[in-house]
Structure to design on (370 residues):
């Protein structure tokens, strides 16, 4: 099996030992080069063409973020992993605007196994993306050699299968919208900003969001969005009453669920538990809590850009136990077409839209069902 080529931009000798070993132990990647000189990184990327560049934020006298921006100007699609210290939120929102950039917290020297596990999750996704795209390109080349009549037959049969497979929800049967649930991951902060900016400021439905982020980052995300959009955005807290027209963002590092305390009183539950779909918080946890506690509720579920399939099982439960209409972000506008793809391919998406249209579509659905 081929291995991903990795270049590290780091000049801290003790920490290099951790990541040098962890990268090779994942079984998915091979460390090709360690570059400790800021000025040489771009030239080495050009020469060795790595699949992944790992950049320490404090590389070269805390110039890691500057290096990231320089690399992205030249290699916009290159996969980059930024190493952060816990509690270091500086530049976080600038970094999240770039495509194919992941962030992980640096591990202590004695925590080599955790460093390996974290890297393996990220490498697995990148590996799948690279070789899936490669296979797609190979298939496209083969299709060019097939005659037009065969192509027409394939397309016609695919459309026939799709009609049987997708069982769309009839919005005319929706009496109201009790909850709006949103899941997002890689590329999510930018997508959430576009979506929330389009929402009416008098929307009368609570909005609960799970954005895959480490502990410490979601507070800044909620404050940043609150400054930019017309509705109130807060980081969720345990036992917080859920109110209409407020956006609640799950805390990084904790799962978020919803509980029915009493008639017309719902509260947020924040709790620490094992990861689900390799992430904390997980959208599946939130979605399933609504399905379990609010049988027959009217739910609008939205799944945005992100790697993996978090949200798929939750949407399935929502459709089974509630009245659930699901919107997914289309491939063209996604940074990573993973989570919405898993919804679409499993027949759970009722509409697939560009991110710039999802906010207005939510307004349309909610407006006539108050």
């Amino acid at each position: 099996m081929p291995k991903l080529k990795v270049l590290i931009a780091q000049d801290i000798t003790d920490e290099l030992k951790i990541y040098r070993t962890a990268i090779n132990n994942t079984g998915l990647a091979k460390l090709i080069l360690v570059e400790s000189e800021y000025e040489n990184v771009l030239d080495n990327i050009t020469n060795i063409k790595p699949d992944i560049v790992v950049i320490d934020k404090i590389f070269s006298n805390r110039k890691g973020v500057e290096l990231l921006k320089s690399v992205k100007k030249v290699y916009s699609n290159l996969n980059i992993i930024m190493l952060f210290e816990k509690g270091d939120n500086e530049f976080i929102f600038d970094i999240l605007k770039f495509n194919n950039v992941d962030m992980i917290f640096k591990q202590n020297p004695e925590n080599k196994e955790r460093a390996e596990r974290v890297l393996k999750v990220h490498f697995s996704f990148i590996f799948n993306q690279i070789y899936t795209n490669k296979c797609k390109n190979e298939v496209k080349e083969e299709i060019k050699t097939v005659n037009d009549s065969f192509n027409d037959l394939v397309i016609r049969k695919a459309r026939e299968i799709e009609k049987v497979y997708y069982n769309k929800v009839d919005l005319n049967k929706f009496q109201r919208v009790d909850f709006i649930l949103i899941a997002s991951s890689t590329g999510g902060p930018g997508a959430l900003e576009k979506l929330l900016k389009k929402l009416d400021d008098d929307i009368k439905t609570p909005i609960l969001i799970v954005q895959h982020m480490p502990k410490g980052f979601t507070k800044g995300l909620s404050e940043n969005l609150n400054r930019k959009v017309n509705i109130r955005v807060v980081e969720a807290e345990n036992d917080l009453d859920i109110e209409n027209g407020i956006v609640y963002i799950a805390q990084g590092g904790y799962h978020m669920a919803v509980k029915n305390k009493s008639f017309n009183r719902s509260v947020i539950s924040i709790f620490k538990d094992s990861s689900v779909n390799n992430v904390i918080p997980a959208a599946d946890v939130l979605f399933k809590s609504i399905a379990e506690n609010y049988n027959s509720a009217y739910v609008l579920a939205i799944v945005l850009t992100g790697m993996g399939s978090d949200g798929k099982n939750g949407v399935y439960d929502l459709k089974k136990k509630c009245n659930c209409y699901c919107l997914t972000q289309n491939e063209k506008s996604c940074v990573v077409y993973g989570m919405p793809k898993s919804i679409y391919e499993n027949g759970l998406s009722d509409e697939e839209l560009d991110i710039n249209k999802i906010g207005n579509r939510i307004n349309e659905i909610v407006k006539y069902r108050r």
